[in-house]
Amino acid sequence: MRRPGAGWWRFALPALTALGALAVVLAGAGPVPQAVAAVAPGVLAVGAVAAGLPRRPRSHRPPWVLHGLGLACVTAGHVLFHVALHQGGAWSGSAADVLFVLGNALVLTALARLSWRRFDSGALLDTAIAATGAAVAIGALVVRPALAQTGLSGTGAVLVVVYPLFDLLLLGLALHWLLSGRSARVPSVLAAAAYACLLAGDVLSGAVVLLGPELGGPWQLLPFSWCLSLLAAAALTSTRLAPAVPDETTTGWPLWRWLLVGGAACLAPAVLLGQGLAGLPVDWAVVGTGSLVLSALTLARVRQLVRRVEEQARQLAEVARTDALTGLPNRRTWDACLQRALAGGGPVAVALLDLDHFKRLNDTAGHAAGDRVLRSAAGAWRDLLPPAAMIARYGGEEFAVLLTGAAVPDALDLVEDLRRATPAPQTASAGVARWDGAESAAELVARADAALYAAKRGGRDRVAAR
Fold this sequence. Notes:
Elements: H1 12-27, H2 31-52, H3 61-86, H4 96-115, H5 121-149, H6 155-180, H7 185-211, H8 222-237, H9 248-251, H10 255-265, H11 267-277, H12 284-321, H13 331-344, E1 348-355, H14 358-365, H15 367-384, E2 390-395, E3 398-404, H16 411-420, E4 428-434, H17 441-457, E5 463-465
Parallel strand pairs: 4-5
Antiparallel strand pairs: 1-3, 1-4, 2-3
Helix pairs in contact: 1-2, 1-8, 2-3, 2-8, 3-4, 4-6, 5-6, 5-7, 5-10, 5-12, 6-7, 7-8, 11-12, 14-15
């Protein structure tokens, strides 16, 4: 059964509206076609959000309603903007800006609510690095020069700052979804591309303010039309946020993520270098502050990744030392402990325990029953051992016990207690050997193994010593 929203046909209408906006600009059409090309994507986006509400989880519907209201405000802003433009108004500073700001605020609130309690710390730091790098470039190359050279004040100055700020926050949320994998890949890419278009449109508008209003024209509206078209496509292809994905330390980073985070971290020095080479005044306040923030964020990200790698290494080391079925140390760990005990020169004793007729149990009752017996026997034996002793799974149904110090004189009695503690009706045989102070670890274990086989030949369910 195909998942809802997976059909590629859902891209058709958004693609047609985006291409229509481009065609209107290229054809040099009049104000009415321009208005239609600017408003149609917004109407489609609002309709897509409304149409998708019934199939979304109830907990997600309120933020999606906010999202739809925000897009409706933006669309209404485009209507007012073109009405004012048709009446000879200016390209910026119109009453439509109130609706644009309100719409952006509603959309930002909606996306923040959808992301609430779903933030991934690693993706959040990567997003912050990307947004900070972009903010440095935009602030130093567009916003600050526009404010300084054009004499903007009041509402105009606020808008030059507020629009890119909203855009960066919206783009940051979409990037967080994409980087953390908490929504389906296609809608996340579409949303990130939409807010990138929105940011590009506002940056171009700021550049027009900086370089001269005569450079403005219908082409300025294209990024905004494309933004709304992409948001419509994202709404049509998305039903809900997905659950978390595997940790990035196990899935690795794709090339695009390296380029995004690494490129953003290099933006501040690139701006500084570009201003210097072009002979422009160096905006040390923006670039310097941005560089400090980027350095702090990068350091925090590196620290987080190092801690994750250390934790992963600890877990891998634990897996390498532990038997997965019983939770006991494995043979490699036991061998290493035996070598250290012999190197210390103190009294040492070893015992090998073997579950009687275990192959018969596996063949008749099944491997699941055999696993249960292994786990229960391991737990019962481990609970009886003194703190200075250790028991490990030596292989198959065989277990090894290492005794040192004061526990060695009572080794035979202790192993006898272990044999009695074997969960009924299962029985066990055991062989015990004390170190003579000169033999190797292999020779000591061989003596314990010989004692174990002597116990088996003697009728099983008993302890023998060598």
